[in-house]
Fold this sequence. Notes:
Layout: H1 3-33, E1 39-44, E2 50-55, E3 58-63, E4 68-71, E5 74-77, E6 82-83, H2 84-92, E7 106-110, E8 115-121, H3 126-135, E9 141-147, H4 153-163, H5 168-178, H6 192-201, E10 209-212, E11 217-219, H7 224-234
Parallel strand pairs: 8-9
Antiparallel strand pairs: 1-2, 2-3, 3-4, 4-5, 5-6, 7-9, 8-10, 10-11
Amino acid sequence: MPTKLRVCLYMALLVSSMAAASEATVKQAMQKKYPAIPVESVAKTPLAGIYEVFAGGEVFYVDENVNHMIVRGRLIDVARGTDLTDERLRALTAIKFGKLPLELAFRVVKGNGKRKFAYFTDPNCPYCKRLDKELDKLTDVTIHVFLYPILSPDSVEKAKAVWCSKDRGKVYMDWMLNGNPPKTAGTCDTPVEKIVAYGRQKGINGTPTLFFADGQRVAGAISVTQLEKLLDGAR
């Protein structure tokens, strides 16, 4: 066999061996950190240092030491168990509290009202109703409620009925917690259209969406324990 050909074959075998060794390293690291998850396969990707892992019926991506993981488009810090994508999204979508159009909201004050956050809600939102049960457990907080009717056409009618009520906070909470609709028709001037326009501009795509005093944005229904941590952290 010509010398040049032998060298080429040797290099090909060496590269193949190195790839296999790297894939084996990834598999060992996965099994060490997640012993309960059987790893079915590991393969190199076109991206240097990034490996495809197929385990538990899912495909995700890791570095060689499995310090970081990309799962369904989200980057996870394995050691901290933290969703780094979520952290960055919160930072990138934050809005300074003082920049919010608070004049378009009504307030619900509990206790001394020292802590504060803003709340974009739709009267037809089941997750908002779930969140409102958690909000009802809070003390010493001011909630700036933005009526953000984006889920269905009659959401607008319901939002306007809340706004046109004499005690908006009481009527809103009674409706969301107890299912008692407003007795007032929504025929007064309301800021609903302005709130919807503002929300669209700021990429508020769902309800509930919360903004805390430090500007952090949180979407979705969260527990009162999480709310307390976020409120105290923001303060």
